[in-house]
SDR family oxidoreductase (Halotia branconii CENA392), 270 residues
Amino acid sequence: MSYSPYLLKGQKALVTGASSGIGEAIARHLAASGAAVAINYHSEAEEAQKIVDDIKVANGEAISIQADVSKEDQVKAMFSQTLKQFGTIDILVNNAGLQKDSPFIEMSLDQWNAVIGVNLTGQFLCAREAAKEFLRRGVKPDISCAAGKIICISSVHEIIPWAGHVNYATSKGGINMMMRSIAQELAPHKIRVNSIAPGAIKTPINKSAWETPEAEAKLLKLIPAKRVGNVEDIAKAAVWLASDDSDYVNGETLFVDGGMTLYPGFTQNG
Ligand code: NAD
């Protein structure tokens, strides 16, 4: 990691679904950039504790908090605990997400609700609690020129339709309009709300798409950069969006996808 430990010094962050994959990398990069980090996890207590321990060994500050982000009471309790431990919060990374894939006509209401509940409603619930604290506290110029920053982890599937994943693609499309509407409403209060839309990143959520050479070769046909992304590609973008370096960026989706949304199927000789 090449980040200054002063970039986010004095800031307090909460990353949801941070016990694995992209969330874990974001939490580690925020901590390496000087932020105190609350690691939210759903069921992987040991993994979350390991990340906390690693951050502490590197002289950082971290705690782990169990919560299901789709449950309002658990989200409220998670924010209460974060505020109790850290005093306030400056950065929320809405990362927790899951897939429940199915052909459309076989998709059950439970599969639909589970994905919308975590990926979209979970982001709404966390953003609302974070915004309340940002508004209560306001800007502390020695900490950041913003009253708070929210980063929503979306997906290229917020614009690319995805057969067999209608619940997931719908949740990500919803994040785009939710993120921009919150950004529009809260911008006058110096709160910035942005999204990162990852392309294909090597994590547990999409293991079947890259774990064999055959699967990876098929996937690479969709990626002009000709490599599957790694979690650091996303974490670096998250640090920038969390920092004052991106102070004039609000209501934007940053696609970090190796060109996947350039529709490589349309190249003449690619
Ligand atoms: P992952 O499975 O490693 O991470 C998802 C995390 O969310 C896990 O830690 C899981 O425990 C947590 N989670 C699931 N349900 C939860 C709940 N109810 N409450 C709290 N936490 C919960 O996979 P990942 O790839 O790191 O995914 C992180 C985010 O990135 C997701 O929003 C995903 O949609 C998005 N994304 C991933 C890719 C990719 O290629 N990996 C691409 C685009 C978008």
